[in-house]
Every structure is written in structure tokens, then in C-alpha cells.
């Protein structure tokens, strides 16, 4: 299962370049994803309200769904279709609606990662040095669904929202998710934080000052790493941002 999920996460990262993060637009609170285009096609999955997914817009009435967050195991190798009338792009939602959506998603991610930590701790009997593989696998799957899949698929849209709105509430929720969860090997969150720094450097640094020094250093390291991916940034601007970050590190 772990290998299958890892392959799916790689697939999500690739399809994110051509697809858009969306939620359903359905008064019933759920929408069927079909195995092929058409209302009579077999149902491949059900997407609920607030459940994000990647969709690939096209000229057709039925759009391809590449991945559905929070439901990764059953959708490994999945490809489905949803009618375009049932799709609402996250980036096109009103700011107040986006704020609520991001807040709920980030808090749910943190709760699930804490659950994963509890399951992993419970899976190991310290007296006998025995490992309950079922609990351990459940912990691994829970974390991968919540963090490696949903969280890392969400942060780019969070970054775009923050660059436009400078919403302190959502920034703090995002940073708390970074603190409360163990980071995966993926570089996606660092890249997003680096891009947020590029678009709103003074604002972001000001908000980071509310954290203890050790936490700030953690975020500065993420930003610096994210900046290494800013290939299209003029060298003069990149140098200025790096110098500004270096000066910020010296603050008490």
C-alpha cells in the first residue's frame, strides 16, 4: 500500500501543473465521479462538500479528475470524470469562503497528523519491543493522506491567496501546520513559503517575528530553501531578498 500511495503522490505533483484545485458545486453536498464521461457511466467515487480534488478543464462537458484528497487509498491509479457544472475552482471562490475553506482544511490536517502520531506510538509495545503492523500501517496511511497528499496539494493555493490578501489568520494556520506536523521529504511547502516571501517579504517577516527564535530559524531555513527554486527571479531581486533574510536572522 505504501508504494502505491507514494506513486500516487508523485502523480499528483505532476498533474498539479496542468490541473486546478477545486471543490464541488452541488446543493446536495456530494457529487458522483464517473468512470467515463456521461451521466450513465458507473460511479468511480463520491466527492463530498469541502473535499478538494484536482480537475483538468477542457472544452468538453465532462472534465477529468486526477486525484481526490482525503481518499487516497481507494483512488490509487484512479481516473474519473465530473460534469463541469459541478466544479468550483478554489481560486475563484470569494475571499471569505476561501478563508473558511483553508482554515478547515489546515486544522483537519493537523488533527489527522496528531492522530497518526498517536497511532504510531500505540503501535509499539515498549515492554516487549513488539510492533503492531496494522496500527503502524494505519498511522503511515493517515499521515500520507493528510500531509503528503492533502497538505502538500493545498499549499500553492494557500500561497496565492496569502499573496493577494495578506490574511494573518490563514498564514498562522499554515505555519502552525508546519510546526505541529513532522515534515515529509517533499520540498513543496518550502517552495510555497519561499514564493510567499517573494511576493510579500516585509509582511511575512513581520508575522514570523511573533514566533520564538528557534521557530523563526526553522521558517527562515524553509524560505531560503524555497528561494533556491526561484529560477525566473532577476538576480538583483533575489540577492536583495537573500540579504534581507540574512539580516532578519540576526534579530534577537
UniProtKB/TrEMBL annotation:
<keyword id="KW-0732">Signal</keyword>
<feature type="signal peptide">
    <location>
        <begin position="1"/>
        <end position="16"/>
    </location>
</feature>
<protein>
    <recommendedName>
        <fullName>SH3 domain-containing protein</fullName>
    </recommendedName>
</protein>
